Amino acid sequence: MKKLKFLLFIPLLCAMQCEPEGPCGDNPTSNYVLHNNLISIETNGTTYHVGDTIWINAVVNKNQSDANSSQNINLFNFDNKLNFNVNLLKTSSYNQNFPISLNENHVVSDKGEVMANSFIMVKEGDNFVNRTGIKLLETGTFKINCAEISSYRDYYDCTTRTYIGTTISNADSENYYNFIVE
Predict the structure, then answer these.
(1) Each residue's pLDDT expressed in tens, for the chain with a length of 182 residues
(2) What are the distances in angstroms from CA 43 to CA 53, 66, 134, 165, 180?
(3) Coil/strand/helix, residue 17
(4) Bridge pairing between strands 53-61 and 148-151
């Protein structure tokens, strides 16, 4: 009987060791684009005051070139919205960066949508756009980073996804926009 229990336990143990496949299988179809400077900080300064707003602007033309195949692609054929995550970090006196979670009290959306630190780009003319301001609520040394724009869709939507590697146009060599709030 002990052997039978052990034999029944083995398939369960093996099943727990396997990585579950994503809802789209191992190789979902994707567009990969590399295009620097698609995101910019409009209020380009190094020193701000509590109560100021830093405006982040992102514009992606619908016509791009796939980095893997060099084929021209029209992003409007694949996506209704794009999004990018904004990492707002505060530096402590111990030189550690602490992430700040944004909410409706911290942001003002002029174009597009915002869900916490995810800035959602919407269609406008031949572009996807987002213009969102982050309200500066406390003093300190801060940095902003955004490195990828991607399809804004449900995880279970298995249609072609878009990934755009990008930089902030007025960031440092590590793609951080650094500033101080007094």
Answers:
(1) 555 444 444 443 344 444 445 555 555 578 888 888 999 999 888 999 999 999 999 999 999 988 888 888 899 988 899 999 999 999 988 878 999 999 988 999 999 999 989 999 999 999 999 999 999 999 999 999 998 998 886 555 566 788 999 999 999 999 999 999 99
(2) 8, 31, 11, 23, 13
(3) helix
(4) unpaired
Q: How many degrees, rounded to 5, is the angle at CA 87 between CA 59 and CA 172?
A: 75
Query: What does the block give as tokens for 73?
Result: 């692609």
Side by side, which strands form the sheet with 140-145? 47-48, 177-181, 140-145, 87-91, 97-100
- d(CA 85, CA 6) in angstroms, rounded, equals 47
* Closest to 118 in 3D by CA, of 105, 107, 128: 107
Can you state the percent helix, strand and coil of the chain, rounding each to 5? 10, 45, 45
Lookup result for tokens 């398939």 = 11
